[in-house]
Amino acid sequence: MMLNWQAANEAIFSSPVFDIALTVACYQLGLWAYRRSGNKPFLLPVFIGFVLTALLVWLLDRPLAAYELGAGPIMVLLGPVTVALAVPLYENLHLMARLWWPLLLMLVITAVTVASSAVYIGFGLGGSDALVMSLAPKAATTPIAILIADSIGGYMGVAAVVVMLTGILGAMTGPGLLHKLGVQHHAALGFALGLSAHAVGTARAFEISRQCGAFAALGMSLMGFTLAVCLPLALG
Q: Do 129 and 96 fall within a single domain?
C-alpha cells in the first residue's frame, strides 16, 4: 500500500503535539549549544530557541494562529512556574525586609527611566502614538506588558516582541555589565536583572544563585505591578 505523504503531513501538522514538540526541540537545541559553549551569554537557550522556532515556523509555512493554538498548553505552565517563585522569595524575606528602602528607590528610578526613555526616544525618532505606547511597557513581563499596551492605545503584538527582545538583551549583557560597574552582591544583581529583563533575566539570575533569582523575581513582580498601575494613569 502506497503511503499518502500529503495526508501524512497534514496529520502531523494538525496534531496537537506538533507545535509543542517543535518548541521543546528548539529550546533543547539552544540549551545544548549554551552548555557546550560554556554558558556564553549570546547563546542563551531562550534566544536560540526563539530564533529556531520562528525560522522553522516560517520555513514550514505554518500559520501563526495555528502555531499559537498548538503551543498554547505551554503557556499554561507559566502559572505554576510563577507561583513556584514564591518559595525562594520566602526564603529571602528577612533580607528583603532589611533592604526595602534601597529596593524601593531602585524600583522608582528604573520604572521612570525605562518608561520615559522609551516614550521620548520613540517620539524623537518619529514613531506614531500607537507605536510609542507599545514601547512604553517594555520593562514589564509579557502578559502584563501586552495588557498595558492595549489599555493605553498600543499594539499588543509589538509590545510582546519588544518585551521579549528587551529580556533577551538584558539577560545577555546585564550580568557582565553590572559586574564591570562593581555590582557584586547577588541581591542587587538579581533585583536589577528582574527590573530590566523581567522573566528572561530572572531565569538568568537563577543560574547565578538562588538568592539572585529570588531578588530577580521580586524585581520582575514589582516592576510589572508598578507599570500596570502608573502607565495607564500617565499615558492612557
A: yes
